[in-house]
Amino acid sequence: MRRAEIGRSGSAGAVAFFVGGEANTHAHADPHTHAASLCRCQATATFHSQWQTALFGALDAEHVMSLRFEEGQWAIDWQPTLILPQLGRGVTLALLEEQLERGDILDVQQQILASNEQVITVGVVPALIPDSDRQEIIEQLAPIVSVDAAEIEEKIVTAPPDWFVPVGDIDFDTSVVYLDLLAAMPGVERRPHPLRVYPQEETGAHLVGTLGGIPASQAEAYRAQGYNGDELVGITGVEGWGEAFLAGKRGAKLLTISPTGETMAEVASAQPSPGGNISLSIDTQLQQQAELILGARRGAIVVMEPTGFVKAMASYPRFDSNDFAAGINAETWSQLLNNEDRPLVNRAAQGAYPPASLFKIVSIAAAMEKLGWSPDREFYCSGTWDGLGENFPKKCWLETGHGHINLKDGLTQSCDVVFYEVGLALHREDPALLPEMARAFGFGQPTGIQGVDETGGVVPDNEWKMETLGEAFFDGDAVNMAIGQGYTLATPLQVSQMMAVVSNDGLLYRPQIVQQLSSRDSGDQFFRPEQVNQIPVSPENWAIIQNALFGVAHGKRGTAREAFAGIEYTIIGKTGTAETGIDAPHAWFIGYSPADIPEIVIVVMLENAGEGSKEAAPLFRLMLESYFDWLGKEE
Predict the structure, then answer these.
(1) Which of 94, 171, 295, 620 sits at a 20 to 30 Å CA gap from 440?
(2) What global pTM score does this model have?
(3) Which parts of 54-187 are beta strand (E)?
(4) Residue 27 domain boundaries
(5) 44, part of any domain
(6) 74 with 180, same domain?
(7) 85 DSSP 8-state letter
(8) CA 313, CA 280: separation in Å to the nearest integer?
(9) Can you tell me the distance from the alpha carbon of 626 to that of 437, in angstroms, rounded to the nearest whole number?
């Protein structure tokens, strides 16, 4: 129980209740005078007040106000009862709070991803330690709390003597073992408190998220919800997305305390609302396998059902959410921030990369639907293309050229020359055609997945380029866009969404990671597949695209035929090698399987790793085989 200090602002008619020196509840009085009585130099008035509070809602009260006529004007005879009738002279307010445990975050199999455990903070009050015993106590504490003795001594000598100085945390079992020893040490205290724990450590850390202190920019918003301001709250990932649901609402009582310290009355109370549990679609076993396959390569792997539920989302490098659970220390935070590999970035959803030849799926869809081009339309690839003029030649990735090749085979063999022609024709027909088709596939805006911090990528067009670079969008920009280069940027999650569209014959579902909310108060809420668009492509053209992509892994001239030689599963897929202009290209492979009845979509992206067919496709194969092996065990 902590005493409340009461502040008063007569001019604004506003009062704030303070607990422990921190503003806890802001209230506004709305007085309405009911009656007044006058007697020469004295008068009384009754009025009604209503305090709007975050914890207790509206507090209504009736008051009698005494007035005195002095020096030609009326003055209020100030009494604490003008704030609340229960506040007589010497009476104070106390706020008694009931702290709640934060809800758990679970995977699809109900394995714990985030939970709570009771820990014991061991600390000292320096003034209570006899000088003759201090060194011995420090040396006894050091191995118990796993903190160097010199560090403990530094904390003690630099702290105010009457303060409780935490020196380290121990778990409950350890506290039992050392109970008698700690109890016998003068000036040593044990204080229990809950600690957020992440038993899977780095596994899925970007998804589960982190805790942290309330950001200054959000302090007022949190106070309005009843937070004290010193809590650790969800900052990123599902911890941040589900903060209100996970934290619940603590119970509280507002009491009046007599001058002798006794409880007099209950002014108001609020019933607690326990924090709920959040279950994800992520499977820990698959997530661990995806992270194992990705290894120490900078990149991402996404495993998603065609209807949008994500089964695994791996990103490397990673971090351990446990480092943030008690408030991250400065050294660890500095290491994470200054790491040039950016471990805090979830590359699957926050990393935006040129989609390269993956984007040819969008381009061929636009060519067939908007230009009416046949899949048999013929082109000739010599390895060089001069459609922008002889002074602006462009190369195909196959230097010797593909020779005579049609539109459909151009997708299977990923012929750049074919898609240079596609980009130029679309742009000259209508510069908006290709960007609009890209946006229909979900590019250029966040997917809207719950609990995952993401970026929207870039779909360039004339408006974007004028605003960003002050230049018009030229033919050359459209040609680059058609092969997924130039200014076009996409996240692996957006690419997963695109591949799911192909598997669904044009139905676009929003990616989701939250599968269920479970609350003791409101029961269970289940999330269902959410269709957000239907791509304007005919069933006949979807069949052509799917057949072309089948040839990527299984055709004689498919760009990934070597990576999938002998595989027992059928794959609709696409390679991508994204030029960066500086370092080695990013390697992509995306696909779904089985080809006839799609069950799973997988995307592999490796930063600066080389060719997609050689670097990303083999990892796709490992992930696909791991998925079906896992599925067999589940069944």
Answers:
(1) 620
(2) 0.81
(3) 57-70, 73-76, 92-98, 105-106, 112-124, 165-171
(4) 2-98
(5) yes
(6) no
(7) T
(8) 12
(9) 34
DSSP-assigned letters across all residues of 46-66: EEEEEEEETTTEEEEEEEEEE
Report the pLDDT value the prediction gives residue 521, as an integer from 0 to 100.
80
Residues 109, 131: Cα–Cα separation, whole Å: 55
- The answer to whether residue 219 sits within a structural domain is no
Distances, alpha carbon 149 to alpha carbons 72, 120, 253, 488, in Å: 70, 19, 42, 56
**Quick one: 437 and 489 in the same domain?**
yes
CA separation for the pair 331, 499 (Å, rounded): 41
Copy the structure tokens of residue 122: 């061991």
Residues of 421-458 as b/e, b for ≥16 C-beta within 10 angstroms? bbbbbbbeeebebbbebbbbbbbbebbebbbbbbbbbb
Q: What is the pLDDT of residue 436?
A: 97
Nearest Cα residue to 573 out of 511, 510, 495, 457: 495
Determine, yes or no, domain membership for 226: no
DSSP assignment of 444-466, as one string?
TS----TT------B---HHHHH
- Residue-wise pLDDT for 142-157, tens only, equals 989 888 888 888 888 8
Angstrom CA distances, 309 to 119, 292, 301, 448, 512, stand at 35, 21, 14, 13, 5
Residue 364 vs residues 265, 341, 407, 421, 459: alpha-carbon distances, Å: 75, 35, 8, 11, 16
Q: Where is the domain boundary, 163, 197, 231?
A: 197
Q: Annotate 469-517 with DSSP letters as a single string.
A: HS----HHHHHHHHTT-TT-BB-HHHHHHHHHHHHTTTEEE--B-EEEE
User: Alpha helix (H) ranges present in 349-458?
Assistant: 360-370, 407-412, 416-429, 433-440
Q: What is the DSSP letter of 390?
A: T
Cα dihedral across residues 610, 571, 554, 565: positive or negative: positive
Quick: pLDDT tens for 1-59.
Answer: 333 333 333 322 333 333 333 333 333 444 455 555 556 688 888 888 888 887 788 88
Measuring CA to CA, how many Å separate 404 from each of 412, 459, 480?
A: 14, 31, 22
